[in-house]
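This section describes the prediction task in plain terms. A model, or a person checking by hand, is given the sequence of a single protein chain and must write out its three-dimensional structure as a string of tokens. No templates, partner chains or ligands are provided. The sample shown here is typical of the held-out split.
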Amino acid sequence: MFRPKLPTMPQPTGIITPPAVIEPTRITPGTPVMPAPTTAPAPVPAPARSTVQLTPGTALALVGGGTAVVLVVGAVLVSLLLAVAVTGASVAVCAVVLRSLLASGNRRR
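The expected answer:
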């Protein structure tokens, strides 16, 4: 009753690939391996890049997008600062009320 029931592992379904067969290679110590002669590779030409041209419309779109990002980030940061300020003020009010309640309880005795 108090022993937990462990779920059984499900069996794999579908096509199961067999493990890869690894063929051993024979290594004889002391025999130097001669590297294959290499030739200098042919220089690869650099790909031609097209130049980016800013038209007045795209420049205006970039400025508008940057302004929108700055405004959104500023609004988020101001709202976070306001949330911290409201939380601090409410904690201060709670502390003053609790102090007042505890002080009035001591005076009545």
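For orientation: The helical segments are 56-107.
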